[in-house]
Amino acid sequence: MAIASEQSKGIGQAVHRKEDRKLLTGKGRYVDDLKLPGMQHMAIVRSTHAHADITAIETSQAKAMPGVTAVLTGEDLEFAAGVPCASNPTGEMVHPVRPPLAKGRVRHAGEPVAVVLASDRYAAADAAAMIEISYSPLPAVVTPEEALADGAPRVHEELDSNVALVLAHSTDNVDDAFAKADVVVKQTIRNQRLIHVPIETRGVVADWNTASDELTVHSSTQVPHFLRTFLAIVCGVSEAKVRAIAPDVGGGFGSKLNAYAEEFVAAAASRKIGAPVKWIEERSEAMLATCHGRAQDAHMELAATTDGKVLAMRAHYVQDYGSYLQMLTPLISQLTLLMSPGAYAIPEVDVTVTNVYTNTVPTDALRGAGRPEATHAIERIMDILALELGMSRTEVRRRNFPQEFPFTTAIGLMYDSGDYEGTLAKLLELSDSKADFERRRQEAAARGKRLGRGLSTYVEVCGFVPSDVARSALGLTPGGWESSTVRMHPTGKVTVITGTSPHGQGHATSWSQIVETELGIPFDDVEVIHGDTAFAPYGLGTYGSRSLAVGGTAVHLAATKVREKARLVAAQMLEAAADDLEFSGGTFSVKGSPDKSVTMQEVAFRAWQAFEMPEGVTPGLDETVFFDPPNCVFPFGAHGCEVEVDEETGKVEITSYIAVDDCGNVVNPMIVDGQVHGGVAHGIGQALYEGAVYDANGQLLTGSLVEYVIPSAVEIPSIQTHRTVTPSPTNPLGVKGIGEAGTIASTPAVVGAVCHALGVRDLDMPLQPETVWRAMEKGGTA
Amino acid sequence: MKRAVTISVNGVSHATGVEPRTLLVHFLREHLNLTGTHVGCDTSNCGACTVWLDGMAVKSCTVLAVQADGSEVTTIEGVSANGELHPMQRAFHETHGLQCGYCTPGMVMAAIKLLEANPDPSDAEIRRGLEGNLCRCTGYENIVAAVRAAASGVTV
């Protein structure tokens, strides 16, 4: 790899983003900004019951409303398949069929039942309000406890019970280890149900040309290629006739890592009425019908020696799947299982996951996707172990870190590289001494505040995923590679086509930096195309902090191939042997004769002309690479924070937050810091503020941003970011991922700090003032 | 039944008829095709739709177009002149104060008015001043940095 100079905008530089200008000036193009000729607006009527049979749908009044083109129900639209799920961890799990528009029965409040197509969104909403749906309610199960009870009503009648899947992994000597242990600690640790809340909701514009049978779908999605494949399968049309486009996408956090009922309905409705159809999700619909996340309880047990060495772990997780399987629903708790030991060398493990259907919105990936759950559970139980042993929380962690890498866990994952001591040492170096903290703690007590400190030392798995692992270990339908094309134009400019699909991550900037470093083409001469299936051969999209480690590596490899072909052409141009050429700063020169040189741009022009090409070398400089990673990557770090709890109100304020992350080599430190900031804020949201709540009948009580609080600038502290660099051996760039690390690390650090302030073992999130106040009222014995 | 309104937007006067229930944000986006102003919630929590109405930052999802009759509205499209970014837009670019960009227009509109009211705010004042604008990407760290940079005039 060429080394970036000080002035360059290559790898390692904090280059300002090329994406920004359009977004800052209102020239971004999000789905709702699109207008097509004759376009109709779709409004959706959703189930008002958590579980019911539909007995009648009265649409005649709606159809007679001004501006209405059509009213469609599940009986009007034919689909070749149900809403897809691409995950089957055991290969034997039954996937219940879910029609995109409900037929006969609804299984959660908010399930789509009927749609109106009308000339504008107001007319569509007016007509939707006139549709009358009659239901015969059925008993609903809202929590996993209810769903698992004897004789519980079944969410899916065709299944024997509400248990969708049980996953298990154990080593041979767990019981022995527990029998030998000096200390055993137990705790149930809950990850509440969360809602993603990207500021842009979902949206789709579907345009089915009924003459050519071509379907173009613009969707606010993280995975346009998956969407195209699934549109073809579900709508029964050739995949070659489908084009899916992710335009500018206003955040996803996993909620748009899916192929949703509404996308299929919009496409089928467009075919039915012969006009483009736009659906823009209302925020209230997003709360009620976009997949949720987390909703997992962990029953944790650790066996340890008095000097703090963990001998064994028992972990039993109960995951609420909600009512149906979305695209990756079963994968999420499987990732929890895989990461259950966290950053610790625990020799014996016994892990089970019981996955349960309930009459609620399906759960799926939410920033971190299974790893925050695992990390929160293991970090909290490590704190509890330290409390039990009377040992410091840092010391108990340090005594259980793996010492050598690669490290193979008792689960069977191979952590690629790490220096967990290093990040923890750096965190401690940046933090106040214990004496200073204790002094401030006493001062704070005098003004009615309780101070506490917390930390987490995390490792996470990302860079999804070697394709054979996708199949054999995860039971996924697709593999985990990524594609990239690097194309040089005759004028020396470069187009990169990537299979990743950014929605805020800045790939256009980072991929341009990689090309500048590899080809010496200036950053500003590189354009990056993403999110359009008409351009990329195929792309698996952006999620799971995979884009740089897999997609960025594909860019690097494609650029390298371009350079190596260019070397052959340059050799011909310079009448030298290819091996005799040096490449530096975008120029090939003959070793020892630096005046004999050609630039990469000149080579690109010659390759386009194809005059006097070397024997066997084809015209053009245009290379496509599919990169299948040999392993996942394992970023890690140590986060610490301090909180101040108000004794009168229970309100928690985070007074300092320090993040030390190691994501391997860094392409753009500014972007990496930004990812950490956002991730930490998201994790703080889970710790202190956010929680989706259903009532006993399965009605969502947190149906808007009034009831479901995502943090504002006031709730989020200033976040200090620091790094260590331990390159990954898994890819030639030596990079890992950073999009979710902050979320994974911050939640347990914050909860640990509040528990420390209150002197309690654990508290159920979110730690809203009432929860904290009640814990204090109970005298610190929650 | 449409009502006649005359609304000046980014210095251009629009005399037209709107349904009384038309929200200002929909008037801007769908009637005038000024799609830089975004909608992020139903409840006036997120602030993505923030514009200036007669010099005040308002959430245009909570204003009817008929209420803007006779008023002057400025949207994100009207903030920069002659292809030059406004210093606040430049500050957001230089401090990485945006990621997905969806909240950004509203955030910039609110931030400019914040500095007009308080040209030298503390970090806590910046955070309080932007409480009505939600961002899910940045953790606010670099948004606060952007406003601070714009206040001190240190953008390049």
- The name CATH uses for the topology of the largest domain in chain B is Ubiquitin-like (UB roll)
Form type of chain B? globular
Question: What is the number of domains of chain A?
Answer: 3
Going by helix content, strand content and strand pairing, the class of chain B is alpha+beta
Strand content of chain B is 15-25%
Largest sheet of chain B: 5 strands, mixed
Give the tally of structural domains of chain B.
Answer: 2
Total count of strands of chain B: 5
Helix content of chain B: 25-40%
Q: Helix fraction of chain A?
A: 25-40%
Q: Let me know the CATH homologous superfamily of the largest domain in chain B.
A: Beta-grasp domain
What proportion of the residues of chain A form beta strands (DSSP E)?
15-25%
* Shape designation of chain A: globular
CATH architecture of the largest domain in chain A: 2-Layer Sandwich
Span of the ends, CA to CA of chain B: 51 Å
Q: Which two chains touch over the largest interface?
A: A-B, 60 and 59 residues
CATH topology of the largest domain in chain A: Aldehyde Oxidoreductase, domain 4
| Sequence of strands across the biggest β-sheet of chain B | 2-1-5-3-4
